[in-house]
Amino acid sequence: xxxxxxxxxxxxxxxxxxxxxxxxxxxxxxxxxxxxxxxxxxxxxxxxxxxxxxxxxxxxxxxxxxxxxxxxxxxxxxxxxxxxxxxxxxxxxxxxxxxxxxxxxxxxxxxxxxxxxxxxxxxxxxxxxxxxxxxxxxxxxxxxxxxxxxxxxxxxxxxxxxxxxxxxxxxxxxxxxxxxxxxxxxxxxxxxxxxxxxxxxxxxxxxxxxxxxxxxxxxxxxxxxxxxxxxxxxxxxxxxxxxxxxxxxxxxxxxxxxxxxxxxxxxxxxxxxxxxxxxxxxxxxxxxxxxxxxxxxxxxxxxxxxxxxxxxxxxxxxxxxxxxxxxxxxxxxxxxxxxxxxxxxxxxxxxxxxxxxxxxxxxxxxxxxxxxxxxxxxxxxxxxxxxxxxxxxxxxxxxxxxxxxxxxxxxxxxxxxxxxxxxxxxxxxxxxxxxxxxxxxxxxxxxxxxxxxxxxxxxxx
Length: 461
Hints:
Number of helices: 16
Radius of gyration: 22 Å
Distance between the termini: 52 Å
Shape: globular
Number of strands: 20
Structural class: alpha+beta
Strand content: 25-35%
Helix content: 25-40%
């Protein structure tokens, strides 16, 4: 590890703190960067050094490539870890990091570029033997082409921005009559949101589950798949709860997909951490996309497999071999992650402000990844997620029981949070019996059942 002695963390919040802790465990010094809004943030306080890189808006600070590179060079950092979001999947930035003689802790720029474009990613997936959703062969560049592909694939279909992500830049089309308007609007949104109006089309699956497989590869050709996560409980394509392993899979389905993913990752020469994301319906997997970075939900994999994925990222970036082989990667128990956002739990309006009391839950099998504290003021400038509660137990039923206890213990006062929603979800029979898919949560939130659950919980409190 001699070539990495100091890491600059190009991020903020809980992920910045997570990386700082992994570095400290390895005896590596850290540099935090921060905006003027974040001057009192915990990651700034716990890093060995810190550098202000600009005012609050992300474009002027956490997306300011020149400021971050300058901070790395001025502090004599050896490497940059981007975390997730912000610059983590910017191929040009990864190249700049390498061109400045710094180590990029993540997949190389070419891989980010290759898998970041959804059309190229799908083409690569097919070449590497991954099952894909029936869809257009490349970009759909005209309304005529869109109508032809809609007819060939069969409605309903989904129009997607090639440069999109995070649930943005996609629109369902249920029949040919809807295509003209949907095509025009999606193309405009893609141009506005991503600077690229390239679209492609896929068959719209009606009741899929979102299953993803954790990949880790080194620079020596070794690849390991750390199992899978079920991320099907989503609202507006944003994940709310994640589980590991995916209890809806049979062992054969799991084993087969681990082998498929491992073969694909080796064939594409993948290095560092990444995630193959799939839609799963009627016993079949369909490749969705690949995230060439660490995932928000990586802790559930860590809890079940006993691995520090950030540590492994750093080791791989330093040129070391993986400390694992597929045969000694063995899951233990079940883990669930709850994303706790500073939002109204009923209408999801962001609720920034001062936290007057922060008392996270604890005990056996309970982990909290957060960077807030009593007296901390949540700024309105960034994402509303303020904590992740991760619970581990020997089985899914035991994990749900422990999670109920942990959510009941978790106290955050001064701002509204989504904890009440998480409690209601755990008490729901469909969630307990695995009777949900990607669309279940949005349908539940619109239902009378959700209103009744909210009223019951309110009366109890």
